[in-house]
């Protein structure tokens, strides 16, 4: 991508294309004949972020942390429990599907599984032409011509118009899916694990295709992924999610080079290093235990049950998501890699109003390595 | 690659080469299933027999005109008056291909052919009724879910628990009392009644299958994709989900027909089918029981039922393998 690393400061000045505030989705857990609600799976529990035009926001996290739910909430495939989603200034949080229809042209979704996201009974032409049909859009030279142009744009043979999805490989199928999302020339594309179902060699092709299309069509992406390398490659900014919350949100460069949240550190240390020699050099942080159930998440900081830096305050006071450095937000009482100046250590302590935890700062290199 | 299609992959690749350069013709799943079906010799054998049976049923009067005698025509000259059994044991000859019935000497060949008409007519329309009700109910239950699903599923349970045989015996007995006051009478009434009884009480089998399929299809990502494009319910139902239900509906319809043939035969055998003198396979079997000394009387209608059921089942199994390769993987 040509304009890589849009500075967050410059981005903040612009009007965000998509703005998410304190978004929540609680799936009720019911029991018995009368469907009495006995609890709720807090899949997404109060996340906020902005996406400015032209940037790519990566959303990473482990399985079950709520990233896919977030994507589905933004595209309103599921109904939010709380919070607010605004897209281009429209509050779409609880907008009716009927009123949402015209807005859907500008907001599209790429799906994870290219084998499930294409109807096996429809031809490629019908699949890519579906957006025109559903939205009732007439194109100048007919839908077929428009579809063929899009197919060409995503690197498929326009002659494949009459073929069926089963005749294509996984990578080609994902291209068909991408072609469908591009049909209406959207502004925002939510890509839910766009490459995780593909072979690694094909992943690169598809990721590059996404980047080329962004340059060509001035797209804005929210890329949901669990693969940190993919996110690093494609994103301008990255949000790290843990158990339904954003724990760190930063520019790609600062997140990958100086991650602040212990969880981000642990995630990054788990990225495979292809070089055997360098592999020995790095410290691998092994998190103990499983991700706690979102049905009953730990109080305050949700990571404190697995965090090696956790202290008493972590289980009592929830750390707010604060900007510790320019464009680098983190929700932690004891952030690592805090900015060199003294204010980093004080910032979190000051916000939680608990001055006793002054040993916050030493953080560097403390992880229990193995 | 899609694994189930591997066997046909070379054919798919090879086919476009025969076409003029530049035109790439896709093969639909239906075309691929047809190619797969054509290679299945057993299923094709079943299909040929099925087609023959249908033709026989349609052209029964013509065939009987050529090779037999009217089905209800008595041929006392073929009967040995002392034993009331056919002369020479069976009466099979060039004139009476399958021999004659004991007692009144009716042509068994003609009666078996005419029996095919009743059997297939009832089986087809009862199946059609089951499929229509079952598909509609199954799709509605699966697509809308919630209390609609609960309601329909419980209705299916109730229908499956219904003592169908006893009910049909009772219903036909009761209706016979009112026969004079109804608009339709005689055989037509009985045929309609059998179609209704067999068809109306069999829908839960297909309904359950369709409900399950709809439930799983509804969660597929292409449905989400359509919804995220702003598609409304009817679009998703008719354009995204229903085309994927054609295969299971076809398969289970084909497999339901032989069951219905058997059920119709059983009802006729029990005397609640089409009343005499109209020829039905079940009715002939029922008559034949009294004449166990003349086994050919039982053999021909029995074979007719056997061949029909077997042919439909073989064809249905082949169709399933062709349309739904995952089931045999």
Automatic annotation (TrEMBL), chain B:
**Protein topology in the membrane:** Multi-pass membrane protein
* Record CDD domains: TM_PBP2
Keywords on this record? Cell membrane, Membrane, Transmembrane, Transmembrane helix, Transport
Q: Which residues form a coiled coil?
A: none
Q: Does the keyword Transport apply?
A: yes
- Please state every residue range assigned to the domain named ABC transmembrane type-1: 116-316
Localization annotation: Cell membrane
Segments spanning the bilayer are 42-68, 118-146, 158-178, 190-210, 249-274, 294-316
What domain of life? Bacteria
Give the PANTHER family listed for this entry.
D,D-DIPEPTIDE TRANSPORT SYSTEM PERMEASE PROTEIN DDPC-RELATED, OLIGOPEPTIDE TRANSPORT SYSTEM PERMEASE PROTEIN APPC
Family to which the UniProt record says this protein belongs = Belongs to the binding-protein-dependent transport system permease family.
How is this protein named in the record?
ABC transporter permease
- UniProt source species: Microtetraspora fusca
């Amino acid at each position: 991508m040509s304009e890589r690393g849009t500075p967050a400061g410059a981005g903040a000045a612009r009007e965000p294309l998509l703005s998410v505030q304190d978004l929540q989705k609680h799936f009720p857990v019911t029991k018995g004949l009368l469907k009495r609600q006995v609890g709720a799976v807090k899949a997404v529990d109060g996340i906020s972020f902005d996406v400015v035009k032209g940037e790519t926001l990566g959303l990473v996290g482990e399985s079950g942390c709520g990233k896919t739910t977030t994507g589905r909430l933004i595209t309103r495939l599921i109904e939010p429990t709380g919070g607010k989603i605004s897209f281009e200034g429209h509050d779409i949080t609880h907008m009716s599907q009927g009123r949402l229809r015209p807005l859907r042209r500008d907001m599209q979704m790429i799906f994870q599984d290219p084998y499930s996201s294409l109807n096996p009974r429809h031809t490629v032409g019908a699949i890519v032409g579906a957006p025109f049909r559903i939205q009732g859009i007439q194109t100048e030279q007919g839908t077929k011509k428009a579809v063929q142009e899009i197919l060409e744009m995503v690197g498929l043979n326009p002659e494949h118009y009459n073929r069926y999805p089963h005749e294509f490989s996984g990578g080609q199928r994902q291209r068909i899916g991408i072609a469908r999302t591009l049909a209406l020339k959207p502004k925002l594309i939510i890509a839910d694990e766009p490459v995780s179902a593909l072979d690694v060699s094909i992943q690169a092709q598809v990721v590059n295709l996404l980047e080329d299309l962004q340059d060509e069509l001035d797209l804005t992406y929210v890329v949901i992924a669990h693969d940190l390398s993919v996110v690093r490659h494609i994103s301008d900014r990255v949000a790290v999610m843990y158990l339904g919350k954003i724990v760190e949100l930063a520019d790609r460069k600062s997140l990958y080079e100086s991650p602040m949240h212990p969880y981000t550190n642990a995630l990054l240390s788990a990225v495979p290093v292809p070089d055997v020699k360098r592999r020995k050099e790095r410290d691998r942080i092994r998190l103990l235990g499983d991700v706690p159930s979102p049905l009953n998440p730990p109080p305050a900081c949700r990571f404190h049950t697995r965090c090696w830096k956790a202290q008493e305050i972590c289980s009592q006071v929830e750390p707010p998501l604060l900007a510790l450095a320019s464009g680098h937000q983190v929700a932690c009482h004891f952030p690592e890699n805090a900015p060199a100046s003294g204010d980093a250590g004080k910032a979190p302590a000051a916000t939680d109003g608990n001055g006793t935890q002054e040993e916050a700062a030493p953080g560097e290199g403390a992880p229990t390595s193995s | 690659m899609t694994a189930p299609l591997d066997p046909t992959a070379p054919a798919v690749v090879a086919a476009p080469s025969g076409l003029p350069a530049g035109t790439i013709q896709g093969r639909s799943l239906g075309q691929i299933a047809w190619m797969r079906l054509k290679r299945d010799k057993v299923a094709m054998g079943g299909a040929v027999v099925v087609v023959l049976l249908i033709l026989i049923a349609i052209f029964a009067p013509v065939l009987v005109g050529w090779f037999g005698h009217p089905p209800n025509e008595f041929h006392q000259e073929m009967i040995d008056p002392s034993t009331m059994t056919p002369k020479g044991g069976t009466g099979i000859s060039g004139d009476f291909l399958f021999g004659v019935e004991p007692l009144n000497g009716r042509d068994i060949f003609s009666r078996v052919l005419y029996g095919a008409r009743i059997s297939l007519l009832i089986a087809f329309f009862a199946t059609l009724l089951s499929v229509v009700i079952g598909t509609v109910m199954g799709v509605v239950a699966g697509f809308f879910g919630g209390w609609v699903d609960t309601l329909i599923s419980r209705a299916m349970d109730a229908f499956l628990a219904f003592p169908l045989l006893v009910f049909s015996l009772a219903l036909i007995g009761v209706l016979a009392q009112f026969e004079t006051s109804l608009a339709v009478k005689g055989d037509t009434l009985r045929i309609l009644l059998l179609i209704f009884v067999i068809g109306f009480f069999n829908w839960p089998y297909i309904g359950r299958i369709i409900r399950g399929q709809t439930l799983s299809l509804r969660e597929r990502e292409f449905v989400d994709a359509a919804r995220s494009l702003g598609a409304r319910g009817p679009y998703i139902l008719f354009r995204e989900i229903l085309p994927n239900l054609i295969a299971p509906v076809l398969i289970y319809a084909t497999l339901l027909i032989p069951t219905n043939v058997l059920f119709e035969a059983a009802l006729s055998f029990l005397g609640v089918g089409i009343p005499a003198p109209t020829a039905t396979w079940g009715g002939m079997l029922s008559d034949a029981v009294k004449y166990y000394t003349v086994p050919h009387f039982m053999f021909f209608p029995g074979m007719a039922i056997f061949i029909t059921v077997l042919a439909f089942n073989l064809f249905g199994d082949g169709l399933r393998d062709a349309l739904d390769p995952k089931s045999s993987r």
